[in-house]
Structures are given as C-alpha cells and as structure tokens.
Amino acid sequence: MLFSAWQLPRAPEAIQAETERMRLTAEAASVASYEADVAVLRELRMALRDVTTKLLLERRWRAFAEPVTPEDDPEFWHRVRC
Question: Maximum distance among all alpha carbons in the chain?
Fold first, then answer.
C-alpha cells in the first residue's frame, strides 16, 4: 500500500521545530517594531526639545515658561481649573 506525502503524520520534533521557528520569527518582528518605535520617539523628543529651547530663548515667549498662579490672574485660574 502506497501513501502520499499528505497522508503521512508529521514527526513531533518537526512540529515542535516549526512552532519554535514561528515563535522566534514573531518575536524578532516584535523586537524590530519596538526598536523602530523607540527610534521615532527619540527623534520626536529631540525635535520637541529643539523647538522648546528656541521658544524659551525668544523674549516674546518667555511669559509662557512658567505656569500661571492664582495671584497672577485669578480669573484665568478659575476658568482653567473649573
């Protein structure tokens, strides 16, 4: 009696090896995605730090460097907090 390849059972070692290979491939893809996300966030932090520094160095934006206190502007404080 002849069997074709699709009728033969797979060896447990082959199934385990394929499962492990698939897991490692998925893990490598996950790590690569994470590293790409970290790289993008790093670039964004650098850009935001540069913009913030430039804004703080300009005299006209210096008033926004410190938060508004209730003594400075009670009406603004009430509107923002309520």
Answer: 95
